[in-house]
Specification:
Blueprint (H helix, E strand, L loop, with lengths): L1 H23 L6 H23 L10 H23 L4 H12 L3 H13 L5 H23 L9 H8 L2 H15 L5 H11 L2 H12 L12 H26 L4 H11 L5 H10 L3 H26 L1
Length: 308
């Protein structure tokens, strides 16, 4: 399980760098927001185009995705209902709680784990594409739709907001390129690839800067919600993924292990970046990323022990 700890060590190193930058103040008072906007408007859309355009879209439709994607949708929907209609919180908090549960850190942590533990990077691609092409657009449609002014009753307003979202545009362009086999000229593709390479470290740096004043217990009013998110993310979702992947779909061995591991990864830093962009539940998402990342280490060790 050394590879699991190595994956977390890589993430921790970049977050620590962001923390040091935040503490020293070398980026100024708006450094975090600038990095977050860079990731949202340039880095992530470019990364999505590069990854999706170079991936066989047939990977999305393998049956294992019914377990990983199905568990994400089921548990995310449960958290949304619990938060919005049972706990009577805002639509924004409900959506981000659902995202914090279903949107896993497949890019930053999933890739090294797939390479060093599962020995096949192919396990990452379906989950990554599912999140980019399904979870992100659905969530952004809800957020953009709920943010419309009341006098704006046109049904297409929310659709137009989603279509203008740079992350959705990047993913859509990648799908089109993959489906048609279109390749950009090298002098155009390589700058996009370079910009996309800033997305992951940028998100981690922004998260590290957010911790510059230290981390304290969540304020009252968010602790119970954070508990629901953590349990759903690290216990319920991997359990649902195991039920769907094992007893229902018949996967076993390394394939079932991969399904459960990718479902038990912590909340993605992208969720925190999105919360900053939409100005919704920022402290809650920061704490969700931090706590699930720390607790994912023992969770993955337990899963490895149970599934071998």
């Amino acid at each position: 399980m050394l590879a699991v700890f190595e994956g977390f060590a890589v993430i921790a190193g970049v977050i620590l760098t962001g923390f040091v930058l935040g503490r020293t103040g070398v980026l100024g008072p708006h450094g975090q927001q600038v990095i977050a906007k860079l990731v949202f408007y340039a880095g992530t859309p470019a990364l999505l185009y590069v990854v999706v355009s170079e991936t066989d879209l047939g990977l999305i439709f393998n049956t294992a995705l019914f377990a990983t994607g199905g568990s994400a949708l089921i548990v995310g929907a449960l958290l949304f209902v619990l938060t919005r209609w049972i706990r009577r919180r805002s639509t924004g908090e409900a959506l981000f709680s659902a995202w914090a549960t279903s949107y896993v850190n497949i890019g930053n942590l999933g890739i090294p784990i797939a390479a060093y533990v599962l020995h096949d990077i192919g396990y990452v691609a379906p989950v990554l594409l599912f999140q980019l092409l399904v979870l992100a657009p659905i969530g952004m449609a809800v957020l953009d739709g709920s943010g419309r002014k009341r006098h704006d009753s046109h049904w297409y307003s929310a659709v137009l907001q989603v279509l203008k979202n740079p992350i959705v545009l990047g993913a859509a362009a990648g799908v089109a390129a993959s489906a048609t086999g279109f390749e950009l000229p090298r002098f155009i593709f390589e700058p996009i690839d370079m910009i996309g390479a800033t997305a992951v470290p940028g998100a981690l740096l922004a998260f590290g800067i957010s911790l510059k004043d230290g981390w304290a217990l969540p304020v009252k009013g968010t602790r119970s919600q954070l508990s629901y998110i953590t349990v759903a993310k690290l216990v319920v979702q991997p359990l649902v993924a195991w039920v769907i992947g094992g007893p229902l779909l018949g996967y076993d061995g390394l394939d079932l292990f991969a399904i459960v591991v990718t479902s038990a990864l912590p909340t993605a830093q992208n969720v925190y970046i999105y919360s900053m962009q939409y100005r919704q539940s920022e402290a809650l998402m920061r704490d969700a990323v931090f706590i699930t990342t720390v607790l994912a280490v023992p969770a993955l060790v337990v899963i490895a022990a149970l599934l071998g």
